[in-house]
């Protein structure tokens, strides 16, 4: 039987050691380069060249040249960390570990190394009460590459790494001719971090126990199957505009308040980058001096912008973890800054002021107080899973005459009362009030 990949890397590492200078190297060499970086596993000791696969291949003359790569077994002793991120027990653990692993990935990139195999098994939890930067760590650099530009001069390959967490562009290599395939770059790894986060949210409860079965878990299984099937499933997952509300409805309650906004914005950001990459594949023919595809250089230049945005999302979510649970705020709800644009009673034209109701009215002092703006902003309403975003700020107004009839905002107005609406000093309602008065006169 022919295996194109080693059966396991849990105990023994078999990184490629190729003499063609493509940027790869043994894991211990890359870990030396990562010495002192927070968020990346630290090597204590290593034993190199314990064995090589060419010693066990037998006669390979019948195979095409390049079918086999010689791999070298090494032994690495690294600093002790916690278990993989799937063994979390709190939301804060997940967010902190992912945040510091992404920061470690950025630090690796600063030393010209791209990881290429982001998965839950390769993100470890930090020790309890760890400081920022050590709450999570990236391990397993056995297929990492050294960079000679913003990318490594070796083409992306859907057969390398963990397919379930591959980016869309890496999966698309199953469709492209070799000359169309660009390198695996750091944006592919950032997208893989999103797929890891989505996997954890949909598969586990916020306390680390398995979540009840849901229909999205069928999609998760397809992510690890045939690359074309995984590509189509992930494309829909990223591009579906209504998916945020479906995910919020399905995710465990403990995830919802701290992570709903993180999930939505992280997904939207990676979808934007994936769409730009897909367009550049066909619009850009940029190459390096060696003729290597360099189509994504315009995106890869903004390194700090990409990392700062994503790390900021995790920092915001970590702040919300420490707050008491609240309804998820509606991003389209009105903010307190909108009150500055409300027109005061003195500036409203007389012809737009409604006529007072016919029944006896309160004293002039109470009239003045009733027309004043509320002293506190409206509270955000609880999130409805199937709600649709509005193009304008949402406001909730009480019916007229609440001073006389209590606080029941759903009370129907008696048919006999055909007076104009009570004034609400808002620019958007001035025209409505005047039109309402005009229509009443013809009834």
Written account of the structure:
This protein has helices at residues 27-33, 91-110, 168-171, 186-203, 216-223, 227-239, 243-250, 253-283, 297-300, 303-321, 364-370, 402-405, 427-440, and strands at residues 43-52, 72-78, 113-114, 123-125, 136-138, 145-146, 151-155, 183-185. It has 443 residues and is mainly alpha-helical. A two-stranded antiparallel ribbon has the order 1-2. The chain has a two-stranded antiparallel sheet with strand order 3-6. The model is unreliable at 1-23 and 331-425 (pLDDT under 50).
Strand and helix layout:
Layout: H1 27-33, E1 43-52, E2 72-78, H2 91-110, E3 113-114, E4 123-125, E5 136-138, E6 145-146, E7 151-155, H3 168-171, E8 183-185, H4 186-203, H5 216-223, H6 227-239, H7 243-250, H8 253-283, H9 297-300, H10 303-321, H11 364-370, H12 402-405, H13 427-440
């Amino acid at each position: 039987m022919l295996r194109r990949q080693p059966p396991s890397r849990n105990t023994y590492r078999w990184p490629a050691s190729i003499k063609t200078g493509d940027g790869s190297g043994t894991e211990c060499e890359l870990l030396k380069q990562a010495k002192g970086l927070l968020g990346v596993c630290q090597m204590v000791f290593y034993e190199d060249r314990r064995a090589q696969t060419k010693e066990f291949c037998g006669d390979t003359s019948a195979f095409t040249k390049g079918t086999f790569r010689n791999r070298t077994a090494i032994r690495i002793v690294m600093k002790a960390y916690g278990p993989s991120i799937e063994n979390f027990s709190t939301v804060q653990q997940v967010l902190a570990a992912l945040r510091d692993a992404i920061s470690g990935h950025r630090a690796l990139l600063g030393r010209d190394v791209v990881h290429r195999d982001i998965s839950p098994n390769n993100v470890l939890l930090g020790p309890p009460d760890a400081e920022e930067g050590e709450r999570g760590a990236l391990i397993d650099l056995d297929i990492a590459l050294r960079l000679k530009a913003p990318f490594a001069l070796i083409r992306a390959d859907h057969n390398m790494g963990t397919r379930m967490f591959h980016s869309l562009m890496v999966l698309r290599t199953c469709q492209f001719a070799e000359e169309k395939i660009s390198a695996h770059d750091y944006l592919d790894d950032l997208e893989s971090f999103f797929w890891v986060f989505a996997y954890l949210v949909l598969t586990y409860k916020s306390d680390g126990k398995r979540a009840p079965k849901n229909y999205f878990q069928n999609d998760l299984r397809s992510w690890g199957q045939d690359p074309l099937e995984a590509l189509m499933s992930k494309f829909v997952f990223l591009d579906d505009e209504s998916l945020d509300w479906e995910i919020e409805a399905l995710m465990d309650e403990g995830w919802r308040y701290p992570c709903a906004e993180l999930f939505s914005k992280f997904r939207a950001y990676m979808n934007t980058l994936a769409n730009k990459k897909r367009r550049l594949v066909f619009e850009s023919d940029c190459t390096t001096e060696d003729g290597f595809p360099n189509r994504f250089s315009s995106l890869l230049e903004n390194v700090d912008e990409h990392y700062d945005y994503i790390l900021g999302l995790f920092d915001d979510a970590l702040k919300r973890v420490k707050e008491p649970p609240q309804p998820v705020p509606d991003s389209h709800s009105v903010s307190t800054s909108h009150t500055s644009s409300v027109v005061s009673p003195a500036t409203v034209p007389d012809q737009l002021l409604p006529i007072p109701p016919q029944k006896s009215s309160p004293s002039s002092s109470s009239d003045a107080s009733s027309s004043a703006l509320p002293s506190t902003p409206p509270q955000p309403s609880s999130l409805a899973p199937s709600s649709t975003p509005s193009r304008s700020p949402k406001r909730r107004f009480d019916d007229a005459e609440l001073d006389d009839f209590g606080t029941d905002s759903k009370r129907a107005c008696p048919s006999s009362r055909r007076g104009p609406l009570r004034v609400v000093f808002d620019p958007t309602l001035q025209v409505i009030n005047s039109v309402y008065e005009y229509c009443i006169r013809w009834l």
